[in-house]
Amino acid sequence: MAERRPIPFRGGGFDPVPRPIVPWLALVAILGLWQVASSTGLLPPLFMPSPATVMRALVDLSADGTIPRHIEASLRRMIPGWLIGTAAGLAVGIAMGIFSTARASGLPIVSALFPIPKIALLPLLILWFGIGEPSKIATIALGVFFPTAISAYSACDSVPRNLIRMGQSFGLPGADIVRKILLPGAMPGILAGFRITASVALLLLVAAEMIGAEFGIGAFVLQAGNLMQTDHLVAGVALLSILGLLISFGLGHLERWVLRWR
Predict the structure, then answer these.
(1) Is 204 part of any domain?
(2) pTM for the full model?
(3) 39, 78, 208, 234: which has the fewest Cβ within 10 Å?
(4) What CATH number is given to the structural domain containing 80?
(5) What's the pLDDT score for residue 14?
């Protein structure tokens, strides 16, 4: 009688396997190669300072209060702009995903205005709102609005129609279908759009702060570039990268909490 062998499990559904050490190893390898290239003279310090020099600049700028002041100014612009643009984009996108009239009237307008670079509208927004904070917040909100509206509409439109028809066949009211079927099914796509719009908000923030802003990470990077302080410039870029990572980390926690039913 032939020996019976257990059949190996071939499933898994492409579930991501945690690799907590790999990102740190990759970061250490990149910084190590960068430091070696700087120490051996392959990277001139004027054009690309070493990681050690950048770290010293970050420590000094943090000690004298420069970095906290610029980060506070940036967050006071980015957070309201992202919240306003996200709220308006969700309202329009979900409306386009539910109502045929809203889709027919709103989708062509959103699709036509979405490709326009929003930073190009900053001079016009300055004429409307002034050179102060409202014009910068409006630029960020405008840039966040369109990708949020499109991602929300696409997420609602991708919910399987069979689930909606099943709810209708059981006599569920329209509000319950939206609340219990449509929105939970669209939430993964909406949250994925949040990651995109957070990056868009960060890009627009830096660009807006380079025009008529005294404080902010973008203004700090521009000033460091004008003065050829490359260690400060790279330190500002590192701050933007850290801020982006923190935002992505926070959105990841939000996604796991909202989608815990999966």
Answers:
(1) yes
(2) 0.83
(3) 39
(4) 1.10.3720.10
(5) 64
Is the torsion defined by CA of 152, 91, 260, 173 positive or negative? negative
Q: Is residue 41 part of a domain?
A: no
Instruction: Provide the 8-state DSSP code for 45.
Output: T
Tell whether 5 is covered by a domain: no
Q: Quote the number of domains for the chain.
A: 1
Neighbours of 164 (CB within 10 A): 16
Residue 2 belongs to some domain of the structure:
no
CA–chain centroid gap for 193, Å, is 8
Name the residue range of residue 153's domain: 65-258
Helix axis angle for 122-129 and 133-157, nearest 10°, is 120
Count the Cβ atoms, other than its own, within 10 Å of residue 126. Answer: 19
Evaluate if residue 144 carries a pLDDT over 80: yes
Summarised one tens digit per residue, pLDDT across range 15-71 is: 677 777 888 889 889 989 988 888 888 888 778 888 888 899 989 888 988 889 999
Structure tokens at 116: 């326009």
Burial zone of 262 (CB within 10 Å; 0-12 exposed, 13-18 middle, 19+ buried): exposed
Check if the beta carbon of residue 110 is closer than 8 Å to that of residue 149.
Answer: yes
74, 205 Cβ separation under 8 angstroms: yes
**Rounded distance, CA 32 to CA 19, Å?**
21
State the alpha helices, DSSP H only, in the chain. Answer: 21-39, 51-63, 66-98, 100-113, 122-129, 133-157, 161-169, 174-177, 183-209, 217-226, 230-258
3-class SS of residue 111? helix
